[in-house]
Structures are given as C-alpha cells and as structure tokens.
Write a structure and sequence with these properties.
about 475 residues; mainly alpha; 23 helices
Length: about 475
Amino acid sequence: MKNTKLIKLLKTFTVPELKKFRDFVHSPYFNKNKNIIKLFDELEKYHPGFDNESLNEEAVYRKVFGSDTYDYFKIKNIISDLYNLGIEYLKQHPNIYTDFYKEYNLLVELRTRKLWSYHKKTINSLEKKFDEIEVKDSIYLYDNYLLTMESHLSNVLEKPNSITMIQNEFNSFFEFSILNILKFYNLMMHISKENNIKMDMKMLDDVINYSENNGVSTNPSVVAYKYLVLLAAKRKEEYYFFLKKHFLENFKKISYEDAYYINMYMTGYCTDKFNINSERKYIKESYDMLKHSYLNNMVTLGEILYPNFINYVKIFTRAGDIALARDFMNDYRDKLPAKLSESCLNFSNAYIMHYEGNFSKALALISKVSFPWVIMKAQVKIMQIQLNYQLGYYEETRELVEYFRKSLTKEENISADYKSSILGFLKLTVMLINIVQATDRSSKEFEKKAMLNELDRGQKNHFGIKFWLEDRLAEIK
C-alpha cells in the first residue's frame, strides 16, 4: 500500500494542506461515501512518512469495513476513490497563476448574472487596491489585465461606442505581454550563450528596434528587462550603467524573483567584461552587484550551487573585501551540498589566503580540493600553478604546467574558448619563469616585451589569469 498512487499523493501534502483536504473529504458537497471518510481518517494518522509497518491493506481494510472478510477488490476500489477525490481537491486548489482568481471569479459571476451595479462597485473597490500595490510584477500585470477587461465589459453598457476602454484594455494586455516576452528573451539568450546553442527567438529584432526607439513602459520591471535585452543584444556599456542605476533605485518595486534574475544577468555582463574584455573596473561592478544580492538575501531561489558559492567568495575577495567574503561563507556554508562542502570551503579559504599572500597555507588547502565538474577542476589546477610559481618552486611549476597542458588538450568536456584561454595561460607562465630565471639583462627585457605582446594579442582573462600574469610580470625588475 505504501507504493500506491494515493500514498504518493498524500506524502506531498503539507500539514495545512492535509487539514484542508480533510475538510474536503468530510464535506457532503464533494463526498457522500462514509467509507472514504473512514479510509482518510485512518491514513491521516500515518502522515507525513506513511512508513509505519502496520500500514498495509488488510489492516486498513479492517479499520474501514470492520469484521468483513478481506476483499482485495473492495479495498482497491475505495483507495482509488480517495485518490480521485485527492485529484479533485487539487483541481480546486488556487494555482491558476494568481490569488486574484477569487475576486476574478466573483466579477465573472456578477457579470453573467447581470448584477451590473454590484459588478461596477466591486471593480471600483479593486482598482483602488491595485493602485496601492507597490510591486507591479508579472502577476500584478496579469491581474490588472483581467480587472481592466472586466471594467471594459462593465462600461460597455454605459458607453457602448466608447473606445477609451478598448485602448485601456489593450494597454494593460500589452504591458503584461511585453514583460513576459522580454523575460523569455533574456532567459533564452542566457541559455543560448551558456550552452552554445541557437534558439528561435521570434520577433527579437523587431522588439529590440521598438525598444530602442520607444519608452515601452514605465513599469520598473519592464524597464529593467528591456535594458537587459538591449544590453545582451548591443553590448553597449551605457545600457549597463543606466540599468544599474535604475535597478538600485527601484529595487523595492521589483519582485524578489525578478530582482534575482536581473541581478544575475547584470553580473553575467560584468563577468564577460572581466573574463573576455579584461576590464579591471568590472571587478568593482561585479562586487557591487553581488554585494547587493547578498545583503538583500537574493543569493539563491532555492539551494545554492557550489560554483555560485565560490563565485561570491572570489568576487568579494578580488575587490578586497575579505570580511564580506568570510561573512558570506559563514552564512551559506550549511547550505552547500554535503559531499562538496569541505572542498568548497577549502577552495574558498585557499583563494582568500592566496589573495592575502599566505601562499604556503593556500597551497596546502588547495591540495585537498576535489570537484566533479571539469571547469572547477581547471580552476584548482590554475591556482596550484600560480601558488607554486609565487613560492618560487619554478621546476615544480613547469611540471604542473606540462601535466595540465597534456590533460587539457585531451579534455572534451570544456569549451574551445576556455581551452584556448587556459592553454595561453600555461604558455605564458613558462615564459614568465624563463624571464625570472634569465641572467642577461637585455635578454630579460626582450622576453618581457615579447610576453607583453602575447598578452595583448588576445589572451583572455578567464578566472583572472591575464591579470595575474600582468601583475607577476610587473613585479620582475
């Protein structure tokens, strides 16, 4: 019985939901079968685990039907009946997109019953409530469209030839639609970029052209997503800084989920500027965005992914805010996956110690790190190479570089862009060692210029490797 559809369904019910379902089962409006009530009352005792050994069909049968001889089909039928009642309960559950459904249902009923004065009065009351709502997100815009549509229908009786309400209804529908279209474009652009795939984004060029030349909306969420689309498509820095100012000023008027995604997309832009364009000012920009996210409890929509945990620590550390990095680690360490928690914390502490110049301790910690994802493994090897170099272990560094180069060349689960960037770092690290070990002054200067040319010729800055090479080169006298 523990593996029946009924038990699997009941396991998903929270305590408050189970209480509501109890009322549902006991209501003669929905159920008149007393045996179904007995079955529910018996099964309710085993919630939430339903793992008691006494929970079996024969025992439950006796509780429901008394001393009758056990009848397999009889118990199966009543279990099926209760399951179907559970499905009916879910149909009644308010999950149709918005909690506004109750008021909307009332408006529809008043309209269909031609109770126009009550219909109008209810609309006026709801419109006043809507004006007071500060966060006008996608759900609000959907509700507002439904309300505007009802208002239009109500006004048709008074002003059959009026076009004002048609325009209002269209405007509310447009605002709801454009927000969701812009959100979809941002998500699809993000997925396309992260997975190197092409997605069919219908009307994208038309929407971009319209957005560039028109206000579209004054709704803070719509404005934010509009500039995110423009930023992703045009990559104009001016869009980023306008968006940052707009987001920080209107943050409280944007829903938690939208704020999370807007911050994530903006941080992604900063990451590209740091990794691909090698712009140092975006260290601070990434820091500003993730600090805002952290201080406003927008780090995650659920469980934190371990690469995201590490990314917060890295960005706070790069910006020199070690205290914030450690505060973040303390606040979110318990939310890490148990199997990877120790490696995440060791990597994070090694990263901080590397930044602080405590190379020996950092090297000891990084040697204990083991990640399953190839791109995270690459970061571990990069840090090991950097630390060995900064400790003056030049021959060990050469060996690590060669070992990593061979394994990376064969690696198929890493993008060509990342592979090219890391291979360039390995080549330049060997050049760096050669310059340090050169005894002839003129040869050293010649090699430094050659390395600078290599750095400027297209070396990317994934994981900060170009900045690290530039800084190490600048240290050589």
